[in-house]
Amino acid sequence: MRQGNVCLRSDLKVVSNNDITLGHVSWQIAVDRPTPDGLALEVEQCSCPPGYIGTSCEDCAPGYERSGHGPYLGTCVPVQQRQPQCTGPGAVSPYAGHGGRCQCKTYAQGPNCDQCPPNSFYMAATNPQGCIPCFCSGVTQQCQSSSFRRQIVEINYPRGDRDQLILTTSDIRQPYHPPTPAYVSGRAIEFVNFQEANGQTLYWKLPAKFLGNKVTAYGGTLKYTFRFSGEGRTNQEPDVIIRGNDITLQYTHRQPIHAERENTIELKFFEDGWQRVDGQQGTREHLLMALADLDDILIKATYMEECSQSSLISVSMEFAEPQGRGQVAYEVEQCSCPPGYIGTSCEDCAPGYSRTGGDLISVFSGKCGLSSKVVCTWVCASVVNAMDMQPSATRNTVSAWIASTTLKETNAKDANLDSLETLDEELLTIANLPRRDLPAIAIITLLEDATPSADAWSLCEHNTEGTHCERCKKGFYGDATKGTPYDCTPCPCPGAADCYLDAQGQVACRNCPAGLSGRLCDECAPGYTRSHKIAGRPCEPIGQVGDNERTYVPPPPPHEGEQRRRSRHRRRRIRVRSRFFQH
Fold first, then answer.
1. What is the pTM of this model?
2. Domains identified in the chain, total number
C-alpha cells in the first residue's frame, strides 16, 4: 500500500508574527474489526477483478504489480518471473523495488533485510514487523531472545480435572455473579441458569494458576474448547478479556462457531490480536504490562442472546520457564536489567528494592528504589565505622537522638527528615549522607527490627549477594545482574568448592579438594590415582588400590628431556599381597 501525506491549509488572511500551531486532529477511518462506532456504511466494498484487492480495488493482489500505465494508479499486471533478490525474513517483498533496494519491515535492516536493528531481537518471517522491539519495562533497551522453553498450565475436564470456576460479568467495579454456581459434570464444567443474569454476558473466570506474572506468555497460545446451546443472534461481546496493572485488553476471534458442537479457539499473545476497551489497537507495551501481573482472564460463556447452556471443556495457556519442556520461547525477551530490577522484562524489583512511584526511570511501572532497611543498614554501618563503637552503642546513640527530636511524634510511614524542624546534623555528617537520602522510616526500622551490623538483614535471594545483590554468592556461578531467579547456578565442583567463569566463559572450580585437579576438579592430581572403591574419594594417594593391595609406580629416570616424558607412559603396575598392608 502506498503511503502519502495529508496537508492542511492554514488561514492565509491572518497576518501575525506568531507561529501557527495545530491542535487536536481526528479522522474517522474504516477498519475490518468491531469498533464502538458501528459499521462504516458510506465506505464502498467493490467486487474487484483478478489482480486487484482492497475495498476500492486500490491495491494489487499478491503476484501482481503496477504496470506504470492505465487509469488512476495504473493497471495491475502479473509479476514478471524474475529471480528473488530479497530473501531475508525481514523483507516486505522478495523482489527489490525501485533502485534495486529491498524494502524492509519496520524492525529489519540490512541490504537483504536479514538483520535486527539495535534494541530489537528475534527476526521471523511470520512477524509483520520483522524483529521484536525490546520492552524491558522501560528501564533498559538491551535484550535478546530468552532461552526459556514453553510450559503449559491447563484445566482438562475430560482427563479428570475438577476445578470449580466461577461465572462473572466483565464489569470490573461491580461484577455480577449468578447465585447458582456452575457444576462439574463428567467431561466439562457446565452452567444452565442464564436467566439469572438478566441478559448480561457471563464469562468463565480462570483460577489463580493462570494469573500473576505471566509475562513469558508473550508469543504463546491460549487455547480453549467449549460447547453451547441457545437461540437468537450471536453474542458480539469480546471472547476473551485479560486484566493486569490497570490495563484491560480484549480479544474477538473471527472463527465461526456452532451450537450443539464442540468449538475450539486458539489465540496468540501477540499485540495485533488485542484491543483496548476504547476500540484502539493494543500495543506490545500494553500486553506485556498486563501479562506481568494478571488479575483476571475471562473466557466468554454467553454465546447467544438467549443462551440456555454453556460448558467449558478444557483450557490451556502457554508460558515459558527455564525448566520448560516445550519449544524454545524465542519471542520472550531476556533483558539486561540495571541494579534493582529482576525478571525477563525487568518487571519486578530485586530483593531490597521497592516501587517508589512516579516514572523517574520506568514510564510503565515506577522506579525500583532502595528499601528503607537497606538505607538503614548503610547508615548504621557508616556510623559504626566513623564513631568506632559497637553496634549496640550506635543503637543507643540513635535512640537518644530520636528522643531529642520531634521524630518520635511523627508518623513513621509519612516521616521525612526534610520536614522535621529539629535535626541532629552531626549524626548525618558522621554518616556521610545527605539529609534527603536518610528517610526517617530507616531510623524507625533500626529501632524496631534489629541491632545494626554488617549482616543485620539478609535481603538477597536466589543465591546472590552484594549491596545490590549483583553477584553470585560462594558456591554458585553466573551473571546475577540479569535479574532472574535462575542466574546463579550451583558450582559443579566436588566438596562444595568455589567456582568462577574463565576467560572463555566456561565454569572452572577454585581450590580443588586434596587429590583432585583440573578445570572441574574431575582429574586426579599428581601423586594420586583413581580409586576403585565404590564409596569414598575418587582419587587416593599412589600406592593404595584396595584391601591388602598396593600399586607401585617406579619413579622416572633421573635424566631430563624426552626420555623423561616417555617414561611416564611406561609405568609398571605390580600387585603385592601382604598381611602387613592394612588400612
1. 0.57
2. 4
> Which cell is 427 given?
549524626
Gap between the Cα atoms of 221 and 241, Å rounded = 14
- Give the residue with greater pLDDT, 128 vs 543: 128
Same domain as 275, residue 399: no
| Residue in this structure with the C-alpha cell 531481537, named with its chain if needed | 121
156 and 268 assigned to the same domain: yes
What are 65-113's pLDDT values in tens digits?
A: 888 777 778 899 888 777 778 889 999 988 887 677 899 999 999 999 9
- Which residues constitute the domain of residue 153? 149-321
439 shares a domain with 557 = no
Distance in angstroms (rounded) separating the CA atoms of residues 257 and 270: 22
User: And the C-alpha cell for 200?
Assistant: 448480561
Band of residue 388 on the pLDDT scale cut at 50, 70, 90: very low
CA 430, 432, 434, 437 torsion: positive or negative?
negative
In a domain, residue 356? The reply is no
Distance, CA of 463 to CA of 490 (rounded, Å): 9
Task: Give the range with max mean pLDDT: 32-41, 330-339, 550-559.
Answer: 330-339
Closest Cα to residue 229, out of 113, 349, 143, 310?
310
Between β-strands 221-234 and 304-321, what pairing exists: parallel, antiparallel or unpaired? antiparallel
- For residues 172 and 243, state if they share a domain: yes
